[in-house]
Amino acid sequence: MAHFINLVLPIPLERHFTYSVSAPEAKLLQPGMRVSVPFGKSKIYTGIVLSVHTTAPEVYEAKEIHQILDDTPIVTQIQLKHWQWIADYYMCTLGEVVRSALPGAFLLESETLVLRNRDAEIDEQDLKDDEFLVFEALQHQSVLKVHEVAAIVDRKNVLPILNRLLAKNVIKLKEEVFEQYKPKLVKYVRLGIAHSSDEALETLLESLTRAPKQSQVVLALFQLQATSKKPISTSELEQAGNSSKAVIKALVDKGILEEYSIRVDRVDFDGTRDVSAVKELNSYQEQALNDIKTAFDADKVTLLKGVTSSGKTEVYVKLIEECLALKKQVLYLLPEIALTTQLISRLQEYFGEKIAIYHSKYNVQERVEVWNNVLLAKNKAQIVIGARSAMFLPFSDLGLLLVDEEHESSFKQFDPAPRYHARDAAIVLGSMHTSKILLGSATPSIESYHNVKMGKYGYAEITRRYGNVLMPDMELVDIKEAQRKKRMKGHFSERLLEEMTEALEAGEQIILFQNRRGYAPVLECLTCGHTPQCPNCDVSLTYHQFRKQLRCHYCGHHSALPESCLACGSPDLDTKGFGTQQIEQEVIKLFPEAKVDRMDLDTTRGKHAYEKIITRFEQQQLDILVGTQMLTKGLDFRNVSLVGVMNADALLNFPDYRAHERSFQLLTQVAGRAGRTKKRGKVIIQTYNPYHQILKQVTTGEYDNMFEEQIYEREQFKYPPVNRIIKITFKHKNYNVLNEAADWFSSALKTNFGGNVLGPEYPPVARIRNQYLKHVLVKMDKKESAARKKQHIKRIEKSFNAISMYRSVRVVYNVDHI
Ligand code: ADP
Ligand code: ZN
Ligand code: ZN
């Protein structure tokens, strides 16, 4: 009897592939194992076995596989089921899901690029002959393709060799590598607690009369403390006291001075000296925890709505502890892992090495290691913290799923396919495991809160900040009025400047939020009004002052700043609008003494650049941080007393049905960075529309009002969560082909779905990277079967692709989140 396997290959084709295997191979193979197979004329792919059977394919002759790569499955049945769900729901192929789900090292193929791993010492004795050949070739040539390796070892079948070389650290795959960042700890000093009263100090100085060097240091410290409320670093004291490390160390040894580092001692920085890591919940947290458990008992996905700094994380910690006690696995999803070093170190304090971190930018080895640890349900990876790709790991017994900051739009993957929403897809995964599922946010998404209101989700809330810290005091400042009265300095209102001066004098830190990077969005000719455009995209170029460049934020195109208008030759060019960079420069002029830095996509490109800025701010080496929405993500800075929003209007006017929801979330979150300790924080929001409904709701914290209004609008205009929505994007470099194709597709849709098809329409930016774009929206009633409609659309796509002129038009689906 002939034996066959069905495979999924990591390519965007709908069908699965059948290959033939021998009887012993068939006996060995199980679904979820990898095999390498020939494909097309000369390609090699790694595929995942879906089934083993004896039915020969009808239309083609099955090829033989090259090799079985695993002894046991590396992908579980639940994963395959989940991935198929993702493919169906988000209208892509299982192959595309597989490509995005598995670490690259699992999917070696003929086009993979292999490099020598220069970080590892290699003992040539350890290498087998064929391995040595590859190793040697990589001494002469920096990069090899897998099929070139095949020529070198004179074998078709090289994936096993490469897998061995990867395991021995001899090679690595070409891809972006992301290493974990360890912040440099700055040492600070203060007087030991026994000496901090005035009398104690006097006694102390007397006792030091015979150690003049030491008493000089103590006096210097005393002076520094009197003039500045900021923490004093050891090196600062060394300078001020005209002293040395040895003298300071002697004082520390005597217990007269105390050394600490802000990062580690953050908990007791206020002088409270409770270092025990485990925290007891306060009554509000306790209540929330109980409500969550009650909802869990009713098998409900549960939403925890807790204001910023209410201590949601501590509630998660209790749930994690309980899950660990049951020996089950925990998945903790976060919007962006690079942005959460703070949270990770906090959780590591509690759970130590039980925590594994998973991120698509970690290097191959690390990712494979975490994958295997999760697969084997090792202790080391009982708690997985990760961004969206972590939900693709091979959990065997997922007990708890946490989705923190569940409202964040970065849970949605836009490119490439699968274009999934990690919160939604993770909930499906969680229910396949019958795990407990908790979503958390200070500003829940309209969808999740809607699910609560409809009785579908359970609910718990914390309405107070931990430790009775007050919610920040928010003030709207009318800049239209201020401009009319000429009361602005650059982009700063008098009110904002007053508050900034006060905060700086008190040694407190300030965050300034401007949701636009660059110096100014556009350059404008004062004579003819021309603004330079990107040659590849339909957008104006952004002016970046630092490099004196014009840049396109869509395709990366850049050119030098022109000296005169390219249209009329006039030298009178001006900038319109403003970005983070300009704010930073104005701040430097207004407050020359203050230490200022900026955090946006431009300043955080380098390796660890983001973490470095965060750490410097945490360690209070910076007074003012200017930034974009990167600043809003769950950061917990103890010493920030003032947040300034430079201009709230750009957010509100964004052409998107979620603009108001997003503005509410963003402004509330950025405001939440202020005043996390005893003193009440201050937030100044500058705007041209101080009477805008959303701004009022933000300042008064009226989430429920905002929600009711948004739901009403979504009902009126048939948007989610009341309706379902699919956006179909067509892309082509030829304008006419695109238009015809989009018209054809949308009229086929309209024949079937009638008035619920909108478009085709050009998006606000109708050309990106020389590709023209057009959108069609399909709205669906929640009562209809979405699955059937999606299949229908896919059938239309098939007929569409049968028309030769349209075959080169790309069709992209975005479901729910558009
Ligand atoms: P959220 O995630 O809701 O914004 P966090 O969990 O970051 O809030 O908590 C805010 C601050 O309060 C943190 O510094 C945290 O350490 C502290 N905190 C929260 N709950 C407790 C508790 N039960 N005991 C001691 N400190 C707590
Ligand atoms: Zn001009
Ligand atoms: Zn461009």
What does this entry look like structurally?
There is one protein chain. The strands form 9 sheets. Strands 14-15-13-16-17-12-18 form a 7-stranded parallel β-sheet, with helices on both faces. The chain starts with a strand and ends with a strand. About 2% of the residues have low confidence. The protein has 7 domains: 106 residues, 3-Layer(aba) Sandwich (GIY-YIG endonuclease), CATH 3.40.1440.60; 69 residues, Arc Repressor Mutant, subunit A, CATH 1.10.10; 63 residues, no CATH class; 184 residues, 3-Layer(aba) Sandwich (Rossmann fold), CATH 3.40.50.300; 178 residues, P-loop containing nucleotide triphosphate hydrolases (Rossmann fold); 58 residues, no CATH class; 93 residues, 2-Layer Sandwich (Alpha-Beta Plaits), CATH 3.30.70. By secondary structure, the protein is of the alpha/beta class. Strand 3 and strand 4 form a beta hairpin. The longest helix has 19 residues. It is built from 26 helices and 36 strands. Bound molecules: adenosine-5'-diphosphate (ADP) and zinc ion (2 copies). Adenosine-5'-diphosphate (ADP) binds next to helix 12. The site of one zinc ion has 7 residues, from loops.
Q: What's the topology here?
A:
Blueprint lengths: L2 E6 L8 E5 L1 H6 L5 E6 L3 E11 L13 E2 L8 H13 L4 H8 L11 E4 L12 H12 L2 E3 H8 L5 H9 L3 E3 L14 E4 L6 H10 L4 H16 L4 E2 H7 L4 H10 L2 E4 L22 H15 L4 E5 L5 H14 L3 E5 L7 H11 L3 E4 L5 H12 L7 E4 L11 E7 L17 H11 L3 E6 L4 H8 L4 E5 L10 E6 H6 L3 E2 L2 E2 H12 L3 E5 L8 E4 L16 E3 L4 E3 L6 E3 L12 E4 L3 H11 L5 E4 L9 H10 L5 E4 L12 E6 L3 H4 L6 H13 L10 E6 L5 H8 L2 H15 L5 E10 L2 H19 L3 E5 L5 E2 L2 E11 L4 H16 L8 E6 L3
Parallel strand pairs: 12-17, 12-18, 13-15, 13-16, 14-15, 16-17, 19-31, 22-29, 22-30, 28-29, 30-31
Antiparallel strand pairs: 1-2, 1-4, 3-4, 3-5, 6-7, 6-8, 9-10, 9-11, 20-21, 23-27, 24-25, 25-26, 32-35, 32-36, 33-35, 34-35
Helix pairs in contact: 2-3, 2-15, 11-12, 22-23, 25-26
Bound molecules: adenosine-5'-diphosphate and zinc ion (2 copies).
Protein name: Replication restart protein PriA
Family: Belongs to the helicase family. PriA subfamily.
Catalytic activity: ATP + H2O = ADP + phosphate + H(+); Couples ATP hydrolysis with the unwinding of duplex DNA by translocating in the 3'-5' direction
